[in-house]
Design brief:
- This protein is α+β, with helices and mostly antiparallel strands and 213 residues long.
- The protein has one domain.
- The chain contains five helices and seven strands; from the N terminus they run αααβββββαββα.
- The protein has a five-stranded antiparallel beta sheet, with helices on both faces. Strands 6-7 form a two-stranded parallel sheet.
- It is globular and about 75 Å long.
- The N and C termini lie far apart (77 Å).
């Protein structure tokens, strides 16, 4: 025991050993939980689609099963980098196109932020925003999940990049930043801007589904 107390080298090796053991254990847990986490995200995505493409009054009356949802992946290559955007094209049972929901992710202040972006049928207007996953600072950056902040994006035109400001001046493309969390605010806004710029030209025409007898 005295050897460990008096030997910095022994203590350093002990710390390294414990870090390796705990790191390996955490990695194993993460591998086991990953499929569960992704399944939960998929379920939550499907549940949020009506809210993201329909107005509140319609969404409360429209269950996911009342919509025809076709998923696809839009592939974008820019500057030698290929990005993949999962997109859900949403139709009502009468055949009219309700809108689209795109899933995207980008770097936040603390970790990756994953979002769902609702767009109208023509991809011209943002109809909703939902934060699917985030690990931002509690009490500051994690306020991006709050409805009052996210609702700023609704009805913003998609042909003009959004900007984060400390105090609005009346410009239609302004988003109020969260006090003390400018990076998180800009990260979400940047993800929205980049995603829309990438996928908007490819939203229409929608690939036809194969008819089954």
């Amino acid at each position: 025991m005295n050897f460990f107390k008096n030997s910095n080298l022994a203590q350093a090796w002990l710390v390294l050993l414990l870090a390796t053991v705990f790191g390996t254990a955490l990695a194993g847990i993460q591998v086991k939980l990953s499929p569960v986490i992704e399944a939960n995200k998929t379920r939550e995505t499907m549940e949020k689609i009506p809210d993201l493409v329909l107005d509140t009054s319609m969404a409360t009356q429209t269950a996911t099963q009342d919509l025809i949802i076709q998923s696809r992946v839009i592939e974008i290559e820019k500057n030698g980098i290929t990005k993949f955007y999962p997109v859900y094209d949403v139709q009502q049972k009468n055949g009219s196109l309700a809108g689209h929901v795109a899933k995207a992710r980008g770097q936040g202040y603390a970790d990756k932020i994953e979002v769902l972006i609702g767009l109208d049928a023509g991809g011209n207007t943002i109809t909703g925003l939902f934060i699917l996953d985030q690990k931002e600072t509690p009490g500051l950056g994690n306020k991006i999940v709050e409805k009052t902040w996210r609702d700023q994006f609704i009805n913003k035109l998609s042909d003009t990049p959004l900007i984060v400001v400390k105090s609005k001046t009346g410009q239609p493309n302004e988003i109020d930043g969260i006090s003390g969390a400018t990076i998180s605010s800009r990260s979400v806004t940047g993800i929205v801007n980049t995603t829309i710029a990438d996928i908007r030209p490819r939203l229409l025409p929608i690939p036809k589904t194969e008819e089954t007898e």
